[in-house]
Amino acid sequence: MVKSEVKDICFGTLALGQKYRSLALDLAADIQQYSPGTTFVVLTDKPSDFAHCSHVLAIKHQQQGVYPYHDKRFVIAEAIARFETCIFIDADMRILGQVPDEIDWYSGITARSGSGIIKHNQEKKRDFEVIAKVAEKLELNLENVKFVHEFLFTVKRSAGREIEFLKHWDAIAAFFELNGVYLGEGNAMGLAAAKAELSVQFDSEDRFPFFKDRIEKIRISKGQADPTEKLAYFDRQKALEHPKLSKSEKRVLFVRRNLEKVYRLLRLRLTTLENFKFYYW
Predict the structure, then answer these.
(1) Which of 94, 187, 123, 176 is nearest to 149 (CA)?
(2) What is the mean pLDDT of residues 168-195?
(3) Structure confidence at residue 6 as a pLDDT band (50, 70, 90)
(4) Nearest Cα to Cα of residue 86 among 200, 3, 10
C-alpha cells in the first residue's frame, strides 16, 4: 500500500431515526476513545442529537431512497469532499480497541470482504436478473464486477474516479429500486466501481477490533469466539434497536413509514422519467 504523506481520514455512517441515532452515539463514543482526533461524519435526520460530540460532523439528511440502504453513498460524498479517505462503518457496530494513528489504504474501495458479483448472486434469481439488466445498460462484463460487503469499507480518493463512482451509484440505486430490489447496496457499489474504473480491493486484515452482531454470531458458530464475551454488546444493541413502544405508538409508526414509502416511490418514478431510456426502455 502507498503511504499518505498527511493523515486525512475520517469515519462515516448513516443514522436515520431514533434507533440508529442512539446506536451511532455509542459508536461516536468509541471513536472518541479509541481514535481521538478523528472526525466522525454522520448523516442524520436530527443533527442536534450529536451537538455535544465535538468530533462529530453531523449533517442534516432526509432519506432519499425508498429504503435507506443506498443512502450510504451520500455519507461517502460528504466525507470525501472533506477528507482523502472515509472509513464507512455501520451505525450498529462498535469499535473495541485502539485504531492505529497511521492506517494506509489502497486508493479506491477497500472492503473487509466480498466476492465476484456473479458468485454472490448465484442463488438470487430475481436480483441477478436486475443486476444483469444494469450491466447491459452500462456495457459491463459481469465477470469483471465485484460484490462489496458494505458494513465496513473504505473509500479513498482516486483521481476523481470516486466522483464518477458516486454518480453511477446514483443511477444504479434508482434502477434497482424501480425494479423492486431494495437490499444489496454492495451490488450497486461493485457495478458503479466497475463503470468508473475505480479499483476494488478486499483486505480481510482487521485494522482495529470491532463488534458487528452478524460477524460475531458467525465467529461463535465456528467456535472462534466465546458466546459470553460480547454479551454486553449484544444486550446493548438489542435494547436500542427494540425500544418498548405502546400499541398506539406502534400503529402511528407503521402508518407513517408506509406513507413515507409511498411518497418516495412516487418521487422515484417521477425523477427517473427524466432519463426514460435508461430506466424504462
Answers:
(1) 187
(2) 96
(3) very low
(4) 10
